[in-house]
Amino acid sequence: MFPYFIMLIFCGIPLFFMELSFGQFASQGCLGVWRISPMFKGVGYGMMVVSTYIGIYYNVIICIAFYYFFSSMTHVLPWAYCNNPWNSPDCAGVLDASNLTNGSQPATPPSNLSHLLNRTLQRTSPSEEYWRLYVLKLSNDIGNFGEVRLPLLGCLGVSWVVVFLCLIRGVKSSGKVVYFTATFPYVVLTILFVRGVTLEGAFTGIMYYLTPQWDKILEAKVWGDAASQIFYSLGCAWGGLITMASYNKFHNNCYRDSVIISITNCATSVYAGFVIFSILGFMANHLGVDVSRVADHGPGLAFVAYPEALTLLPISPLWSLLFFFMLILLGLGTQFCLLETLVTAIVDEVGNEWILQKKTYVTLGVAVAGFLLGIPLTSQAGIYWLLLMDNYAASFSLVVISCIMCVSIMYIYGHRNYFQDIQMMLGFPPPFFFQICWRFVSPAIIFAQVHCRLPQNLLDFGPLRERNVLLHQLPQRRRVPSHGPLAPHTRTRNPTIRPAGQKASGPQPGHAHTYHAHSASSQATPSAPGSLTSSKPHPRPTVRPHDLITQSRAAGVWRCPTSAWLWSALGGRGTWSLAPGARRRRPGY
């Protein structure tokens, strides 16, 4: 837990604030913001790729939670006993009466010798067999797809339909839904916590959870896992933070939001750990074994160990319904943000009036594509592919993207320019701690992680095993809620990033302004208070990279002299847009 908090303080919160301020100032998605430096637009595409990968397999996890939720609507949980058709002879549940008898084995040993015959009893729990033999019907290897599990396919369709309906009107509809999906899990966690700590053996499980393993504190893998978990749980480098912040009011205090949300997310992760390990401690006490024997990881915790522990509670179907309903809500909150990130990036990139009016169809197209791409993950080998995507799309790649983003903003666009932009937007510069972290500490830590983990990632290709799927952090992978101050119903267009030396003459609070740079000597003309754009946008001229360095200082535009010089020195061709232009109001916002 110590590496987790260190990464939170020096990487998580600073980068969270950077992405929120980046998206809020630009009022653009993860692609449009890189007009500050077109040569780094690939970072935005990297965020889109990560969000696409995660969105595909994350909804499969939600569909499995749906399946368990529907299976819990019964008097007796189907994974409580071993008297089901799919159970093997090795099945032995904690609620089943076990009878072990002596066996005999013929042998003709030499004389004058004594022998000790020892045979290990292969025991599997009914919850594990329910997971492997019934829900997944797991194949032997990754290449044997087998058949598509129709029950999982149906649940996958249900989950995508729910996501689409909640996003049918963008953040205006999803923001209302997230009020429930972001708050009700706390109610369920509290109910499970109160029930868990009152069970016998709960204190043992909690102490196991809180006791650090100091002998592993110097291992690079521990710090790398902590960094990956911070980026995953906070949503850094996904593009979702930039997208959701782009719907903020220009003068919204995103510094306050970033600190509150980051600390709340961390506290929720710790709180969920108490809920999980109190139940596991009770289960270990019931079985008479150490907590480490039942504290599984991956799906073994979310879909095997914890469901098995719930069977020991009175009215176990009720507790199972609450637990999996909580997982569904947490997963949907993440999925809303992932899908909105992709849709917003597509709409911003095309940028014409037709696609603005047809955004619902874009959302439908992305949802249908995600459903079709998720079908292979519902096959008998789907869990192997889910493992592959989770290990290589949502861990090390997040660290690399964050590293490039931090360096490009601080050293290519320029830290002074960025600090002045934040001061114009918030009314005060970023605190000194964040300035130091952005310029030195966070990049150094991320560089160290890349240096230590890259050889390991290239060489560590062990066999794919179903039990290694990283799922035990599902209750902790909370995204920033897309409601409240982070997602107003309207998306305003605000002043673009200005060149160094220009006066910080931003719009006044309460007014939405649009600026157009129609010439090198153009004056920024604000629109009427409360409107999103001026009556008619001026045409956007283009200039060569060589001219951008000198001309950009005379206009309030997005510019990056360093990247322009690098682009020209590397032989870059083509034209750059001097100003990003105005975003028109979209239907439904």
Summarize the structure.
The radius of gyration is 27 Å and the shape is globular.
Question: Care to describe what's here?
Answer:
This protein is mainly α. The protein has a single domain, classed as Hydantoin permease, CATH 1.10.4160. 56% of the residues lie in helices and 1% in strands. It contains 20 helices and two strands. The chain has helices at 2-26, 41-71, 126-135, 150-166, 171-181, 184-197, 202-210, 220-234, 240-245, 254-287, 291-294, 299-310, 316-350, 353-357, 359-374, 382-393, 396-426, 432-459, 545-551, 561-569; strands at 542-543, 576-577. The chain has a two-stranded antiparallel sheet with strand order 1-2. α1 (2-26) packs parallel to α8 (220-234), α10 (254-287) packs across α12 and α13 crosses α15 (359-374). The longest helix is centred in the middle third of the chain and has 35 residues, at 316-350. The chain is globular, with a radius of gyration of 27 Å. The model is unreliable at 97-103 and 464-589 (pLDDT under 50).
**SSE succession:** HHHHHHHHHHHHHHHHHHEHHE
Q: What is the share of helical residues? A: 55-70%
Tell me the span between the first and last alpha carbons: 41 Å
What is the number of strand segments?
2
Poorly predicted runs of 5 or more residues: 97-103, 464-589
Tally of separate helices: 20
- Computed over alpha carbons, the radius of gyration is 27 Å
State the CATH topology: Hydantoin permease
Mean of pLDDT = 77
Largest sheet: 2 strands, antiparallel
Question: What overall form do the CA principal axes indicate?
Answer: globular
CATH top level class name: Mainly Alpha
Question: Which structural class fits the helix and strand makeup?
Answer: mainly alpha
Number of domains: 1
CATH architecture: Orthogonal Bundle
Please report which band the strand proportion falls in: under 5%, 5-15%, 15-25%, 25-35%, 35-45% or over 45%. Answer: under 5%
Strand order of the largest sheet: 1-2
